[in-house]
Write a structure and sequence with these properties.
About 50% of the residues lie in helices and about 0% in strands. By secondary structure, the protein is mainly α.
């Protein structure tokens, strides 16, 4: 995946390497993703979640898709000023020269429909829009991840399960709070559908704010970063 993104210019290899190295994160995972040709089996873990966030962000941004060209993000004008676009500073040249410009992932009509349906119901606690409106880095990265999973034949259920795990890696404190809220209502996290947890009620910015007001906040862990590279 990294080779395609680098060749297309969505990722400037030098900029990316310098950024990762400055954070001490240009590790084996980052090198494999940047230089490897076979990324069919990608493992996202708490340790590499930030690195994978940037790769999926680049993928969602650069891959040609109707969601970027006809969806809500294209209907507000000045698309280049969203955090998910203007905030991507690791491209070669102007970021908008890469926005939905590269056929990196080929989806069938059925796979595209699945991505659109699932993306409309996956939220993230930093914003109040679903993945279908990827106005921040987490939304754009989730879009890239959904496209990749759909292209590999993942089912709707697997996509939701994976999305929840990845969201929890990107927002660990927020999902600990949501789990604590569910427990206070005698609801088992493991028996609650990922689709329900990822929906607006719990995972949107406003939904999470309401949930957090109902419970005592857990002690904050090491921050995972905001909506920037």
């Amino acid at each position: 995946m990294g080779i395609k993104l680098s060749q297309a210019g969505v990722i400037d290899e030098i900029k990316f390497k310098e950024l990762m190295a400055s954070r001490g994160e240009f590790d084996e995972t980052a090198q494999k993703m940047l230089y490897g040709a076979d990324n069919k089996k990608i493992a996202v873990t708490p340790d590499n979640a930030n690195t994978m966030l940037n790769f999926f962000w680049a993928l969602g941004l650069g891959n040609k898709n109707e969601i970027l060209e006809q969806g809500p993000i294209s209907q507000y004008g000045q698309t280049n000023q969203f955090a998910s676009t203007g905030g991507w500073t690791l491209a070669r040249g102007d970021v908008m020269d890469h926005y939905s410009m590269h056929p990196l992932i080929d989806l069938t009509p059925e796979q595209q429909k699945l991505v659109e349906e699932v993306s409309k119901n996956i939220y993230r606690p930093c914003c109040n829009n679903p993945t279908h409106f990827p106005d921040c880095n987490h939304g754009m990265a989730m879009l890239g991840l959904l496209e990749l999973m759909a292209s590999q034949g993942a089912s709707r259920e697997i996509m939701y399960q994976t999305a929840l795990k990845v969201n929890a890696y990107w927002f660990p404190d927020q999902y600990l709070t949501i789990a604590k809220f569910l427990k206070s209502k005698n609801i088992d996290w493991n028996e609650t559908s990922p689709e329900k947890i990822l929906a607006k009620e719990f995972s949107s910015g406003s939904g999470y704010q309401w949930v957090s007001e109902q419970v005592v906040q857990p002690e904050e862990s090491e921050p995972k970063g905001g909506c920037a590279v």
